[in-house]
Amino acid sequence: MRRRAAEKQKIIPDPKFGDEMVARFVNRIMQSGKKSIAERIVYSALDNITARAKKEGQKVEDGDDGESGSGTSELALFNKALDNVAPIVEVRSRRVGGATYQIPVEVPPRRRLALAMRWIIEAARKRSEKGMASQLAGELYDAILGRGEAVKKREDVHKMAKANQAFAHYRWN
Description:
This protein is mainly alpha-helical and 173 residues long. It is built from six helices and two strands.
């Protein structure tokens, strides 16, 4: 057993946006160590959702550096999608006197983002579009608009926590 908790590994920000969240997302998309392919998928998906948002007349925030087409609008949309999918509460199983209760607990910030990324990627892989980039773009765009499989998963988790609200007093931390 460890004497103390292991230190969290520092993730190197991605080369295009210089953002740690995007780098973490690329790492989750990556399969068999093929990072360049994962980066290509994520970057083209982000370009795709930005173009789609502009085409459909949705407000896209640009940075104050004045550059049009800079990465800030893509990052803003990406962060909005993550926020719309990230759960606030979840249920954990706890055994009390022979019975197992589903206890609602608040989700720590790091786990919130990890779950959001995982759910978006799972939902994207299930989609029927051709190519992972377009599947991911579709799921991210749906998440921005508050619909889609990943957002439904979040709502289901919240519904489960609400249904088990009576057992919240069994929380151990």
